[in-house]
Amino acid sequence: MTDTHVDPVNPDNGQDDLPEQMRVRREKRDRLLAEGVPPYPISVPRTHLLKDLRAKYDSQDLEPDTRTGEQVAVVGRVIFLRNTGKLCFVRLREGDGTELQVMLSLADLGEEGLARFKQLVDIGDLLAVQGEVITSRRGELSVQVTGWQLAAKTLRPLPNEHKPLSEEARVRMRYVDLIVRPEAREMVRAKAAVLKALRATYDEHGFVEVETPVLQLTNGGAAARPFSTHLNAFDQEMKLRIALELDLKRAMIGGVDRVYEIGRTFRNEGLDSTHSAEFSMIEAYQAYGDYDSMAELIQELIRNAGRAIGRTTITARDGSTIDVEQPFRHATLFGLLSEAVGESVDVTTDLATLTKLAEQHDVELQPGRNVGEIAVDLFEKLCEHTLIQPTFVRDYPESARPLAKPHREIPGLVEAWDLFVNGVELGVAYSELNDPVIQRDRLVAQSLQAAAGDPEAMELDEDFLRAMEFGMPPAGGMGMGLDRLVMLLTGTGIRETILFPLLRPE
C-alpha cells in the first residue's frame, strides 16, 4: 500500500483525504502506546549498517534463494512498502542513501504478527528489523525478518513521485528534501568533502585554523551593511561580523604567521541567486606573502576542492567548459575596462571622462562617487558577466580597496585582485597594507563616510590600529565564499548549497 500524498507545507489544504492520513497515523501511534509499546523507543537493536551488508555481499554475486546464515539487526526508513498477501516487501534506506530490501512472511511472523505489521507500519516510518541475510527468488540481497520494532513513527506522509515537493517547499523543509531526493543528500556530502579538502590544503602549507568572534564592536574588514544587536551584559550595541579580516590580522601580528578561518559572516543586504544574508567565508593571511602568492594558493584550493568531489571540469553558463586544472588568466581592471568601452582608460583618467562613459553605457552612478569608484562601477556593469573562464582581475584603484597595499609600480593603484569564474566573483586577495599611519588615514576617511550615512562604510577600529602599531609583517591575504565555491563546482544556486537557508516566514 502507498500513502495518499500530503502536502507537508500545508497538510490541511482542502483535500478531504489529507487530514485523514494524518489522523490514521496518529491513531496508530496511540494504539502502540495503549499496547505498552513505545512508538519512539530510546534504542533499537542494530548490529550492522546497511552499507556494511552491501559492501560485504554485493561483491559475492550470490545465487537466488541463498541463505547466508548470518543474523543481523538493521534500521532504516521505509521508502517502499508492499504489504498485501502472505509476504510483505519493504525497502529501507539509511541516511547515506544505501538501500536494502527486507521481507516479512506469514511463516516467520505468524498470522497475528504479520497482520500487526500491516496495520501499524507506513511509508516514512523508521523501522528496525532482525533476521537472516538472504537473497530473494529474484536474487536481491534481503533480510528475512524474524522480528521488528518501530524506531520512530511518522505522523506526516512523505511526498511521492506523483506530486513531489515544489522548489520552495524543498528549500523550506530541507529535512523532507533530504529524505526523498538523493541530490539533496549528495550536496551535504559534497560540501563536507570540499571543506575537508580546503582544510587539508591549508594544512599542507602550514596554515593554522583559528576561530574569531562573531560579535563585533565595529563594522570592519569589508564594505557591507551589518546586522546590529545588543549585548545586555555590557549594555553595549554590537554588530555581527561582515568579514573575518581584522581579527585574523591581529593573530598574524601576534605571531601566527599563516592563519585562516572558515566561518559564518552576516550582511544585511539583498538576497538573490548568489547572495545570502548569512554565509560562510574563508579568509587566510600569510606573513611575507603578497597577492601573487595568494593567487597560487587559491588556485590550489579550488583545484583540490574540485578533485575531492570529482568536479574539476564544469559546464559554464554560456555552455562552454571551465577546467579548473588549467592555469587561471591574469588581467588588469583598467585593461579589461578599456576593451569594454573601446578606448584607453587608466588610473589617471579624469572624473569627467569616466562620468561620460558611464552615461554612454547606461551605468547608474550614486552621487559623490570618485574616480576609482566610478571605474569599478563601470567594470562591474560592463565586464564582470563576460569573465567566464577563471580570471584574476588585478590592480584596483586605491579608493576602492582601502585595506590593500599601494602598487609597487603604478601610483594610485593597490595590489589587489578579484577572481571571477563563470561571470561571478569567487575570491579576493590583497598585498595587505601594513603601514599603520596610511591605514589610519584610510580608515578615518571610511569612518567619515559612515558618519555621513553610508551604511556600508567601515568604522574606525582603534584596537586594530593599535595592533598594527606593534608591527604587522608584509603579508598576502585572501578571502573566498565557500557557498559560491560549492555553487561553481556543483552547478547549483546558493539556496541549494546552504543546508538551511534564510527564508521569509510562512
What does this structure look like?
This protein has an 8-stranded mixed beta sheet, with helices on both faces. A 5-stranded mixed barrel has the order 1-2-3-5-4. A 3-stranded antiparallel beta sheet has the order 7-9-8, with no helix packed on it. Residues 1-6 and 11-17 have low confidence and may be disordered. The protein is elongated. Helix 5 (174-180) crosses helix 6 and helix 10 (351-360) packs parallel to helix 11. The chain folds into 2 domains: 17-164, Beta Barrel (OB fold (Dihydrolipoamide Acetyltransferase, E2P)), CATH 2.40.50; 182-328 and 389-497, 2-Layer Sandwich (BirA Bifunctional Protein, domain 2), CATH 3.30.930. The protein is α+β, with helices and mostly antiparallel strands and 506 residues long. The protein is built from 15 helices and 18 strands.
Summarize the structure.
The protein has 506 residues and is α+β, with helices and mostly antiparallel strands. Helices cover 34% and strands 25% of the residues.
> What's the architecture of the largest domain, going by CATH?
2-Layer Sandwich
CATH topology group of the largest domain: BirA Bifunctional Protein, domain 2
Number of helices: 15
CATH superfamily of the largest domain: Bira Bifunctional Protein, Domain 2
Structural class: alpha+beta
Helix content: 25-40%
Radius of gyration: 29 Å
Q: How many individual β-strands?
A: 18
CATH class of the largest domain: Alpha Beta
Q: What integer is the average pLDDT?
A: 91
For the biggest sheet, the summary is: 8 strands, mixed
How many structural domains can be distinguished in the coordinates?
Answer: 2
Using the alpha-carbon principal axes, give the shape.
elongated
Tell me the strand percentage band: 15-25%
Low-confidence residue ranges:
1-6, 11-17
The N- to C-terminal Cα distance equals 32 Å
Side by side, the strands of the main sheet go: 6-10-11-18-17-16-15-14
Keywords: Aminoacyl-tRNA synthetase, ATP-binding, Cytoplasm, Ligase, Magnesium, Metal-binding, Nucleotide-binding, Protein biosynthesis
Subcellular location: Cytoplasm
Protein name: Lysine--tRNA ligase
Region (Disordered): 1-30
